[in-house]
Write a structure and sequence with these properties.
There is one protein chain. By secondary structure, the protein is an alpha/beta fold. The protein folds into four domains: about 100 residues, no CATH class; about 250 residues, no CATH class; about 170 residues, Alpha-Beta Plaits, CATH 3.30.70.1230; about 80 residues, no CATH class. About 45% of the residues lie in helices and about 20% in strands. The chain has 22 helices and 27 strands. The strands form seven sheets. Strands 1, 2, 3, 6, 7, 15 and 16 form a seven-stranded mixed sheet that branches. Strands 19, 20, 21, 22, 23 and 24 form a six-stranded mixed sheet that branches. Strands 4-11-12-13 form a four-stranded mixed sheet, with helices on one face. A hairpin with a 2-residue loop joins strand 17 and strand 18. The longest helix has 26 residues. It is globular, with a radius of gyration of 30 Å.
Length: about 675
């Protein structure tokens, strides 16, 4: 301890820390940014005249399946204006024509009512975007701004009838948190305003905005009828989260918006995903409202050019003082507390009065390490452990799950026994796909990687954990390592989303002239033993248990039943009312004597197929009571029902009935089909 607290070691530590903070790592920058979050968030809230009208669960219940027909969008816009809105901002992209043919109706409404619509930057352009244009001083420096190759715009009926169009783009910080929002972007050499800036322009009644550039970026930005828009040199605005908008459902809006700006956004679970911000996970519309409120208020949150120099100077001077006093432990600790107790209030004062962001983490960390160097060892150990967890689980779990594991490594190392929902998936049609590539191994590898990316995204979006990839198959679980009380429902929905992802993947394959592929999936719920397993030299996060092998058997059975997804009885029992299920069989998988009621789930409207479902169940009753001819008749009648998704199953079942007719069955036959293979 004496050695660690000696002046020479302290001077060496000071030199190293001074260099570290002068050339900050990603971690140091993250610490600094999180402190800035604290300064910005801990302010008195300021209510503004901005609403976020959410398409939430209540809206889905009122209007039906999302996306809504465009005529419903038109009615929502008119309703908002009938309730006294000043301007509607439509934060919902519409790059494709309405499947219900309502684009003209919506276009007419946009022509009659002022609406600012959103576009999105991309690597290629889709549709033509409107642009109010800008007065640019020194356009030769446009390359200093955020560049994109293309832009995804709305269909012409929407885009060219809107009063304005702005880009929705975020530029998360190094830790993935959204703190600053770009006000402009350059798409293929053309300057476009952000959604917030375009809204401000429309509100101000200007035909364009003005921007002055210099070699290091933006010098000044303004809207003539509004004034200066404070930004950094990259054209970004720090978000003032003290700006508080009002959130309402489009299904239950106030009688009078009182001239407010109303941002319409999607927040329904399973459709929209929030993004991490300084105040936690926030949906896009709320972020836009905070940015717009910041710009309306003229709030200029800034990081002065001299800030870093002042912070380093205080670090060095304060640390030298501590080094001198370090021989007296108590005096050194008291001095550390005194220094921290003075610089923190000063940074808070600087933000409260001038909106200056001054970092106190660098001198604070330095003071603490100099006074108690042993704390530095603990800090490094914890940091390395978190980085190792991030490396181990990156690509296998969502950022949120990884963050939880980083905070609680015991969830990995100690293991646990708990109920989980397991999903096995496997590619169908690999052979013809592989043959279509011939000797092009690289091309096939790229396509297979894209396929795995497509089916993985729904898993990570739902905070599932990928356990392993096995060739073109995958295995993932829900409810571990983090809790998900609705894990059976989550697992089934993810399975359906994976099938949808395969459909979109097939569209790209067909564009390349390649054969389509399919996917089979088995879902089962049960107890599993979860944790880090393997040898001392090689280990991984894994799960063991009978429920796992059953899920694998259900996936293998998909092909034999002509369906894409099979759900086990425990999953079915917990989600019966949530999805449209059809019974498949009473199956005893290989190695089991007890039969399992297995089901498939269809992503169709159950209300339209009630009679068909009754006939399907009647068919199974005939089968169970050995009235195989009657079951065959109903199977023939059911072909073409359920949108044709069960036709292959009914052909297979007819063959099954013909086979069973030839068997010598007892009068008390249990109806169980015993599989002889996996």
């Amino acid at each position: 301890m004496k050695r660690l607290l000696s002046p020479w070691w302290a001077l060496l530590t000071l030199a190293a820390l001074t260099y570290m903070f002068a050339t900050p790592s990603n971690f140091i920058q993250s610490v600094k940014l999180n402190y800035f979050d604290t300064l910005i968030v801990n302010q008195e809230p300021v209510e503004n005249n901005i609403y976020v009208a959410e398409i939430d669960e209540a809206a889905l219940e009122k209007y039906g399946q999302y996306p809504f027909p465009r005529n419903i969008y038109a009615n929502i816009i008119k309703d908002i204006y009938d309730r006294g809105a000043g301007l509607v901002v439509w934060n919902i992209m519409m790059p494709e024509p309405d499947r219900f043919g309502g684009d003209t109706v919506l276009g007419n409404v946009l022509y009659d009512y002022p609406v600012v619509v959103a576009t999105r930057p991309s690597n290629k352009s889709v549709n033509e975007a409107i642009n109010p244009g800008a007065a640019i001083i020194n356009p030769e420096y446009l390359d200093m701004l955020l560049p994109y190759d293309g832009i995804i715009a709305n269909i012409s009926d929407v885009e060219f009838n809107a009063v304005g169009s702005g880009i929705v783009s975020t530029e998360p910080e190094i830790d993935g948190v959204v703190r600053r929002m770009p006000t402009v972007a350059v798409v293929d050499g053309v300057l476009y305003p952000s959604l917030a800036l375009e809204t401000l322009r429309v509100v101000a009644g200007d035909i364009s905005f003005q921007i002055k550039l210099q070699p290091n970026g933006v010098e000044k930005m303004r809207i003539p009828q509004f004034g200066i828009i404070p930004t950094d040199n990259e054209g970004r605005v720090w978000i003032d989260w003290s700006q508080k908008s009002k959130n309402v459902s489009v299904a239950n809006m106030p009688d009078d918006f009182a001239g407010a700006v109303v941002i319409v956004d999607v927040t329904a679970a399973g459709i929209a995903n929030p993004a991490p911000t300084a105040i936690g996970s926030v949906f896009a519309g709320q972020t836009q409202a905070a940015v717009l409120g910041t710009m309306f208020a003229g709030t200029n949150i800034q990081r002065p050019d001299w800030a870093s120099a002042i912070e380093l100077l205080s670090l060095v001077v304060g640390s030298l003082l501590l080094i001198i006093l370090s021989r007296w432990m108590i005096v050194g600790l008291i001095t550390t507390v005194a220094l921290i107790g003075s610089i923190v209030p000063y940074s808070m004062y600087a933000y409260a009065t001038d909106k200056f962001l001054l970092d106190v983490t660098a001198p604070t960390i330095t003071f603490v390490i100099i006074a108690l160097q042993v704390y530095g060892i603990k800090f490094v150990r914890e940091f390395l452990e978190k980085q190792a967890i991030k490396k181990q689980f990156a690509g296998y779990a969502s950022a949120e799950v990884v963050e939880i594991l980083q905070k609680n490594p015991k969830l990995i190392k100690e293991g646990q026994k708990k109920e989980v929902s397991i999903v096995f998936s496997d590619l169908r049609g690999f052979t013809p796909l592989g043959e279509s590539f011939g000797d092009d191994v690289k091309g096939l590898t790229t396509v297979m990687n894209n396929y795995m990316d497509a089916i993985t995204k729904p898993v990570l979006d739902a905070d599932g954990m990928i356990i392993k990839y096995i060739g073109d198959a995958s295995m993932h679980i829900h409810n571990a390592p983090i809790n998900d009380p609705q894990h059976p429902k989550t697992a089934v929905q993810v399975g359906l989303n994976m099938l949808k992802a395969v459909e979109k993947f097939n569209e790209k394959l067909m564009e390349q002239g390649k054969p389509k592929v399919g996917m089979g999936a088995g879902i089962n719920t049960g107890l599993g033993y979860i944790g880090e397993m393997g040898s001392t030299s090689r280990h991984s996060y894994d799960i063991l248990g009978d429920a796992v092998s059953t899920a694998a058997r259900l996936e293998s059975a998909c092909k034999g039943y002509g369906v894409l997804l099979i759900v086990g009885p425990h999953t079915y029992d917990k989600t019966e009312d949530d999805f449209f299920y059809l019974k498949l069989d009473n199956l005893a998988v290989k190695g089991k004597t007890v039969g399992l009621e297995i089901y498939t789930v269809l992503d169709i409207d159950r209300n339209k197929h009630g009679v068909d479902m009754l006939n399907h169940n009647t068919m199974h009753n005939f089968y169970r009571t050995q009235h195989f001819d009657q079951a065959i008749v109903i199977c023939e009648q059911l072909k073409g029902c359920f949108e044709g998704k069960m036709d292959e199953y009914y052909d297979i079942w007819i063959d099954r009935c013909e086979y069973m007719k030839k068997q010598d069955l007892s009068y008390d036959w249990d109806g169980i089909f015993r599989a002889t293979s996996k």
